[in-house]
Automatic annotation (TrEMBL):
This is Esterase KAI2. One of its GO terms (molecular function) is hydrolase activity. The keyword Hydrolase applies. Keywords: Hydrolase. Signal peptide: none annotated. The keyword Transferase does not apply. Belongs to the AB hydrolase superfamily. It comes from the Eukaryota. SUPFAM superfamilies: alpha/beta-Hydrolases (SSF53474).
Amino acid sequence: MGVVEEAHNVKVIGSGDEATIVLGHGFGTDQSVWKHLVPHLVDDYRIVLYDNMGADLQIESCIFVGHSVSAMVGVLASLNRPDLFSKIVMISASPRYLNDVDYQGGFEQDDLNQLFEAMRSNYKAWCLGFAPLAVGGDLDSVAVQEFSRTLFNMRPDIALSLGQTIFQSDMRQILPFVSVPCHIIQSIKDLAVPVVVSEYLHTHLGSESVVEVIPSDGHLPQLSSPDSVVPVLIRHIRNDIAFFARPHYCSCST
């Protein structure tokens, strides 16, 4: 294993030869966020896990599954090398978190300023307050405790810098140039990403796309609601967009 791979804790597992799946986690988490999904994939796929950022493993083509900011990182990467992506599966993705004229991102600038100040003044207290809001559970839930653990593992100044970069970003202008098929999966209730954002992505992406709104609560549904979310993820990994256009399929899970 090279220096870069070791630094980012890259793991390559699975014995399947259907395709390679790269799993990218979001802000405040690590590769453990995929622990409920991976067991369902290892027999059929080669799985690449990493803690941001990933490394060049000489992958010729992959299914990229990106959560939150990693979904948009995958989109950016696909602009330069679309040949490396057979599809992108997005979970809780957003091209912009700030509200704008004719765009509902979920936050006003004052909201973000208060969030950044809370992170700056007392990072541990902020984590304890933010984790249950983001996950959609109470402090005693396993998912909230897991997210709290990975948030605590971040150095506060790095967490603040990364949070500012993510929440102040605006990638709406690149969407029309995306050519890789995109599968958009969104919780019906998400503190960070309103459902209308998933429809915005679907409408403005230049590539084929499909949206599935799932009846889960929170920004990390693969961690908080694995029993209902993992089957949805597997369905989107295994099937192309044409499958979801068939009359028998409903794009809103129940």
